[in-house]
Amino acid sequence: MPKYQKQFRILVAVDCIIFGFDGTELKILLIKRDLEPEKGKWSLMGGFITEKENFDRGGARILKQLTGLEGVYMEQLHAFGHPDRDPNERTISVAYFALIDIHQYENQLSSDYHAEWFPVKKIPKLVFDHTNMVAKARERLRYKSAFHPILFELLPEKFTLPQLQSLYEGIFDTEFDKRNFSRKIQSTKLLVKQKDKDKESSKKGAYYYKLDKRRYAANLHAFLNIIPNPVIFNRL
User: Fold this and answer.
1) How does the average pLDDT of the chain come out, rounded?
2) Do 45 and 60 contact (CB within 8 A), yes or no?
3) Residues 139 and 162 grouped into a single domain
């Protein structure tokens, strides 16, 4: 089959923004880049798509190769294609974001590429346009967490209200009043209270909860009343 004539060939890469929650803080997983340019500087997980891969398969392969992680929630975010984004060669990057419960995957995480977790509020300077990718991913996460249950991919199956509050505060970069947050969460009737408690964080302990996924699917807007300035979602 004849190829397109006189067309410029462009490299295509996938970069993965991996969010994790350790029960206290929202974090992002970074590695040190192992090739020039910008060798040794902090970077997202990235690599080039092979000739016979689609983006989803390539993203999963790159993620496993660089971190050892597989079977995690991943979603395509955006294509970044500024002509000067990679000083070495013209490269388009298709970015994905992934969500994991850090404790669930900590034994799976490979140390081959020195992957390290950073709080989202203390992310070091990143190579190329990776800082813009992270900002775009955080915007998407805020939007999606208001309408879809993807937020709970960051939590264990059982979680406490203080853990849920910490997660929301990390995502929306704001603080919630403890009593108001608890009251509003309880009013959604989407969480199922468990009989056991987490007694590691305090002597009194906090009850565990589970998400009622069937009710959540039937009432996607139930959590909007706890989110600050919901009007921002109309601008995304």
Assistant:
1) 87
2) no
3) no
